[in-house]
Amino acid sequence: AQTVTQSQPEMSVQEAETVTLSCTYDTSESNYYLFWYKQPPSRQMILVIRQEAYKQQNATENRFSVNFQKAAKSFSLKISDSQLGDTAMYFCALDDYKLSFGAGTTVTVRA
Amino acid sequence: DAGVIQSPRHEVTEMGQEVTLRCKPISGHNSLFWYRQTMMRGLELLIYFNNNVPIDDSGMPEDRFSAKMPNASFSTLKIQPSEPRDSAVYFCASTLDRLNTEAFFGQGTRLTVV
């Protein structure tokens, strides 16, 4: 069974618009962390944002924010004011001592 | 630090041959992960080490795959014998510790088995 599930293989968004990527996860650990990573065509993996499970407040990094719903085991990423440089594959990751990734969502920002 | 270094960047081999992928983690990092990326399955965790000890290898597809970490600065992933379905990009990543630390990835090895 998948530990981290990203149900949207591809998303397209107009420049300056907002896009939301979904992610659900499963863990039996009480202490864990969640991440979103970005992989541009260069193949480099870049950390976008992280969330501690024990914190109720949603993390925010500039134009990137998350909606963390612990009871639902949901961790979505919102990209506001999309820019062409945001075009990449985005991976949701769960760190419960074993760092697992979802299958990824390809985001294309249109000019 | 130069980051996580993987070699080779590209590997083309014939079916049945042995393939060895190499990884040098960031100095001081205690955990090392091997992943396989394909279009169909995304980024799959194959195995991870903590303090050079394999902790979980449940993601290793079959006995043809093996991984070692003889010391803190080097790890290998070996496929013997290789098959066309092993074609993928293989990533190595390291983290400072086991929880809540950013994972730093190498540039990956693109393996093609013909």
What would you note in describing this structure?
The complex is a heterodimer of chains A (111) and B (114). Chain A is mainly β. Chain A has no helices and twelve strands. In chain A, strands 2, 5, 6, 10, 11 and 12 form a six-stranded mixed sheet that branches. In chain A, a hairpin with a 3-residue loop joins β10 and β11 (99-101). Chain A starts with a strand and ends with a strand. The model of chain B has no long low-confidence stretch (mean pLDDT 94). Chain B is built from no helices and eleven strands. Chain B has strands at residues 5-7, 10-13, 19-24, 31-38, 42-50, 53-56, 65-71, 74-79, 88-95, 104-105, 109-113. The A-B interface holds A 6, 31-33, 35, 37, 43-45, 47, 50, 52, 91, 93, 95, 97-104 and B 33, 35, 41-45, 48, 55-56, 89, 91, 93, 95, 98-100, 102-103, 105, 107-108.
The greatest interface between two protein chains, and residues involved on each side, is: A-B, 23 and 22 residues
Residue share in helices of chain A?
A: under 10%
Low-confidence stretches of chain B: none
Compute the CA-based radius of gyration of chain A: 13 Å
What's the rounded overall pLDDT mean of chain A?
94
Give the amount of beta strand of chain B, in percent.
over 45%
The share of residues in helices of chain B is under 10%
Query: Largest sheet of chain A at a glance?
Result: 6 strands, mixed
Short description:
The complex is a heterodimer of chains A (111) and B (114). By secondary structure, chain A is mainly beta.
Q: What order do the helices and strands come in, and which of them pair?
A:
The complex is a heterodimer of chains A (111) and B (114).
Chain A: E1 4-5, E2 10-14, E3 19-21, E4 24-25, E5 33-39, E6 46-52, E7 60-61, E8 64-69, E9 74-79, E10 88-95, E11 99-101, E12 105-110
Chain B: E1 5-7, E2 10-13, E3 19-24, E4 31-38, E5 42-50, E6 53-56, E7 65-71, E8 74-79, E9 88-95, E10 104-105, E11 109-113
Parallel strand pairs in B: 2-11
Antiparallel strand pairs in B: 1-3, 3-8, 4-5, 4-9, 5-6, 7-8, 9-10, 9-11
